[in-house]
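Hey, resending since the last one bounced:
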Amino acid sequence: MNVDGIPYRTIWLADDGWAVEIIDQTKLPHEFATVRLESLDDACVAIRDMWVRGAPLIGATTAYGMALAVHADPSDGAMAKAYDALYATRPTAVNLRWALDEMKTVLASLSPNERKEAAYTRAAEICDEDVDICSTIGDNGRPLIESAWNAKGKPAMKDGGVNVLTHCNAGWLATVDWGTALAPIYKAHDAGIPVHVWVDETRPRNQGASLTSWELGKHGVPHTVIVDNVGGHLMQHGLVDLCITGTDRTTAAGDVCNKIGTYLKALAAHDNGVPFYVGLPGPTIDWTVDDGVKDIPIEYRDATEVTEIMGKARDGSLVPVQLTPDGANAANYAFDVTPSRLVTGLITERGVAEASKAALVAMYPDRA
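The structure tokens again:
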């Protein structure tokens, strides 16, 4: 994707061929800054402190984190330490574990002298595979938006074309490129289909207001930022044609774990007859779990993400501002689970599937 005319991915190898560079997403939308990662510890901080976020990008950063660890020390003990350190950074996104296991499978059978080159090669492949997967998710999801446009009647432009509601950020900033939930939107926009996006602010970290709005704006996609509680009202008044969100982990039975508040959007969509789709790559499916509500670990993050908000001061500096009374307690559950019964369909790189175990097994017989 482009940032002021310059093509970017969210993670790439530095010019020296061994360090890794990323976009520091904690500074967006007010400052576009890149960060150089040179060690396992750097990669862990980038994931834990959400310089990078989004399940696919977490997986890609994890792969390069293993490569950085092997670059420093290719021994069995160092690899095991790196695996454990990276695994502990974010508990919910299943792509992290998938990427770790992919790297472990490639490196375990090699001698220490062979591991460095193999680690960087596999990490680069994981990034390239993610780009291809997300682009195909866009191709498979675009017809859903086109169908909604045809159903409305092409002359009906008074409400801005097809109105899509999304939650959190599942665009190219959450992946290596293209995105998951936003990939169909970008493909539709690029094909000339008029599409407008309702962007939930997504408290407490405001990843919709800060990240989704920023990248849609850079790509020229019409959108409107709304507070999280407006979605149901818009659906009641016919102002949402379909919802598309992302997911950090989807169970083998089709339950979807995504940023906190997604479940409430799915309930509102179900009550108002609005289709609710989820964009996801195959590696985001956790084949070891069926019941998402019971079995997916929900990350519980620091309360200051709720009690404070980062903003741009009049002098241009980025500063945290306290929102709550001194000493107020705050709970910060980062994700919730939307049961499969509320999901209209799963948009994957292999097609659009019903949110059920039978449909997912039929679509991914090689992985299931």
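DSSP finds twelve helices and 18 strands in the chain.

Sorry for the duplicate.
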